[in-house]
């Protein structure tokens, strides 16, 4: 089922509460929270304190995308701060299997993200245990970059593997999604769509959310 996950990274942090209210009004199911450490990616964003404080204001599902090294160091804290989905990069840890078990023990959904150059083979044995796979369609680190069309092959392969093996994961795409590129994502078989600038940067957030929902129906 199609789910939109607007990325908070593109929000106006000066009016954060208002922006959350707008997303709630637009009935978006997920909120994508990009956590960056300046090491795994060459940028810093926000951390636990922000996640914890916005948790009070919305029931929206928190889709937390950790662009940090050794994400296992923070799994408890993010669970406590209110994360619902804990998505870590396979390139950032050597303990993926244990981490997935820990995420689930703590009551969160487990997801793994793949950078554009990382093949599916790096997570193939973990696929049966995953609730979601995130296919990066830009190099992680910054919003507002150009969508990488070639990543749709990865999405298609994930669809195929899911079908052949009766797996259950959702397929999320992240980076450069706009009203044009979203069509390619659906055509390839992605169902969870992250959009930062295209949603938070839209003049009318609700109108953009509706526009995406209409495209999803086609
Ligand atoms: C990039 C982040 C994305 C980013 C997407 O590292 O993972 O979630 O916020 O922003 P847009 O949709 O503007 O490309
Ligand atoms: Zn992200």
From TrEMBL:
Catalytic activity, reaction form: D-ribulose 5-phosphate = D-xylulose 5-phosphate
Function statement: Catalyzes the reversible epimerization of D-ribulose 5-phosphate to D-xylulose 5-phosphate.
Binding annotation for a divalent metal cation: 32, 34, 65, 174
Cofactor binding comment, as recorded: Binds 1 divalent metal cation per subunit.
Pathway: Carbohydrate degradation
Cofactor: Co(2+); Fe(2+); Zn(2+); a divalent metal cation
Binding site for substrate: 7, 65, 141-144, 174-176, 196-197
Keywords noted in UniProt: Carbohydrate metabolism, Cobalt, Isomerase, Manganese, Metal-binding, Zinc
Protein name: Ribulose-phosphate 3-epimerase
Pfam families, alphabetized: Ribul_P_3_epim
Catalytic-site annotation from UniProt: 34, 174
EC category name: isomerase
Protein's organism: Megamonas hypermegale
Gene Ontology MF terms in the entry: D-ribulose-phosphate 3-epimerase activity; metal ion binding
GO CC entries: cytoplasm
EC number, UniProt record: 5.1.3.1
InterPro entries: Aldolase_TIM, Ribul_P_3_epim, Ribul_P_3_epim-like, RibuloseP-bd_barrel
Swiss-Prot/TrEMBL GO biological process terms: pentose catabolic process; pentose-phosphate shunt
Protein family (similarity comment): Belongs to the ribulose-phosphate 3-epimerase family.
HAMAP family: RPE (MF_02227)
Keyword Manganese: yes
């Amino acid at each position: 089922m199609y789910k939109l996950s607007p990325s908070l990274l593109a929000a106006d942090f000066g009016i954060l509460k208002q922006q959350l209210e707008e997303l709630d009004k637009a009935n978006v199911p997920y909120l994508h929270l990009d956590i960056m450490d300046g090491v795994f990616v060459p940028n810093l964003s926000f951390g636990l304190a922000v996640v914890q404080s916005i948790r009070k204001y919305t029931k929206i599902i928190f889709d937390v995308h950790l662009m940090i090294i050794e994400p296992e160091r923070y799994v408890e804290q993010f669970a406590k701060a209110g994360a619902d989905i804990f998505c870590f990069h396979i390139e950032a840890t050597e303990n993926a299997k244990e981490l997935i078990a820990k995420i689930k023990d703590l009551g969160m959904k487990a997801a793994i993200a793949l950078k554009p150059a990382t093949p599916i083979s790096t997570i193939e044995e973990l696929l049966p245990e995953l609730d979601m796979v995130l296919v990066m369609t830009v190099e992680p680190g910054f919003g507002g970059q150009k969508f990488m069309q070639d990543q749709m092959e990865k999405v298609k392969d994930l669809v195929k593997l899911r079908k052949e093996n009766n797996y259950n994961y959702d397929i999320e795409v992240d980076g450069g999604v706009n009203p044009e590129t979203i069509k390619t994502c659906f055509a390839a078989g992605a169902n969870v769509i992250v959009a930062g600038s295209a949603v938070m940067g839209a003049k009318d957030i609700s109108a953009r959310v509706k526009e995406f929902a209409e495209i999803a129906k086609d």
